[in-house]
Amino acid sequence: MDNNKNEHEPILPYHVLILDGDKLIHNAIFWDTKSQLAANFPPPNCAIVLESELPDNWQDMTIVNGRLVEATADVIATRRQVRMDVKIELIRTSRKMRYENETDILMIDAIEEFARAHPEYSVFKQWLDAKAKIREDLPKPDLGEGE
To answer: Does the bond joining 44 to the residue before it have cis omega, within 30 degrees of 0?
Structure first.
């Protein structure tokens, strides 16, 4: 008969939040009954919050016994630092890719121009000779007629 009681429970949009250490993860919005979601995401490290009741500052909160509560200043500071570290690393990676794709070729062309203008620098002569050897080993195909 307990199942009949759940038949009248409304299906609504709920946010499912999960605590992983000090990290609060917004899992998703689920349309279901609260009791079914609680069975799938049990306390104490999960909180189920009606969509209309999720606080704007949920990222500065934590979960205690299945309830969303204010986090300590230390937890908030740690989370913000982790987010900042992730953003910095993404920027560092993006810059590295752009340097490799956009500026490194310019630098190599400038070095080659300098090397050709200054044959007295033996290290550049070795580099130019090595490039010439590669071109010799891997020549471009000679396109004849009909190819």
So the answer is: yes
| pLDDT, tens digit (0-9, with 9 covering 90-100), for 51-74 | 999 999 888 888 988 898 999 898
Integer Cα distance of 74 and 45 in angstroms: 19
Decide if 59 contacts 44 (C-beta within 8 A).
no
- Side-chain-side CA neighbours of 36 within 13 Å: the count stands at 15
CB of 63 within 8 A of CB of 21?
no
- Cα dist. 69→4, 56, 60, 72 in Å? 32, 13, 9, 10
Give tens-digit pLDDT for 87-100. Answer: 999 999 999 999 99
